[in-house]
Design brief:
The protein is of the alpha+beta class. It is built from three helices and four strands.
Length: about 110
């Protein structure tokens, strides 16, 4: 299993529009593509408007395959036209288990 962590900040005054767009357009697309999406969180203490997403994949190969398909979906490109100007300082990080062989919690159903 590998986890993808996506973190970013929103520019001021875009939270409501971003959350609505994510709920109505991005999340259904993620589900349609069969991603193991753990969820999205927004900061309540600390840096304002900071977001965190966690995604689960069986392997780096699965990540690569699914991510390429999602990135090439024209509907995602349309979503990015709306959300892209709202987002700054986006970072994507892939994590692998540090203790191979240990039981890992999975959110996949």
């Amino acid at each position: 299993m590998v986890l993808l962590k996506i973190s970013y900040k929103l520019r001021a005054h875009h939270v409501a529009e971003y959350d609505r767009t994510f709920a109505e357009r991005t999340l259904p697309l993620i589900r349609e593509h069969g991603f193991g999406f753990w969820g999205i969180w927004r900061s309540v203490v600390g840096d304002a408007q900071e977001y965190l997403e966690l995604w689960e994949f069986d392997s780096i190969a699965e990540y690569d395959e699914k991510w390429r398909k999602l990135a090439s979906d024209p509907r995602l490109q349309e979503i990015f036209k709306v959300t892209g100007p709202m987002v700054e300082d986006e970072r994507l990080t892939l994590f692998e288990p540090s203790l191979p062989g240990e039981t890992m919690i999975s959110m996949k159903r």
